[in-house]
Amino acid sequence: MKSTFLLPLLLLTLTLTPARADTFDSRAVLGMTAGVSVDAAIKRGKADKKRVLVFVLDEKKTSNASHIKGMLEFDETKKLVQDHFLIVVTDFKNKGVRDIVGKDPTDRPVYVLFNTDGTVVQKGVTAMGGSAGNKLVKEWTGK
Fold first, then answer.
1. Which of 17, 23, 109, 141 could serve as 126's disulfide partner, Cβ 3.0–4.6 Å?
2. Is the pLDDT of residue 8 over 70?
């Protein structure tokens, strides 16, 4: 008798609990804090002589953060990113990247690499996996 009462209650609870999209936690993945302002990061990058790597994602989509984590899967990739770039994690509405990503689909996160002068070096989709991510970061760093 109790189980017939508890099952509908459990199902009701599960349907009322909002699904939470996973987020990209740069501290957990890279051991460094990501900024949210593209403009501020570019200014700091110029002073620190580091380029700025921006990850643009839609946090409402549950797989977006996992694509970035996949791109940065290997420890070597993470170390190169830590040593050579400032990181920004933002959404597609951010004015610093809105015109750059334009009408690109938002179903997967996008990376945008900026030079220290604010020019765009490259942009692309992060859904590539660890090997391709490692190769790309090595190309950017000349390693």
1. 109
2. no
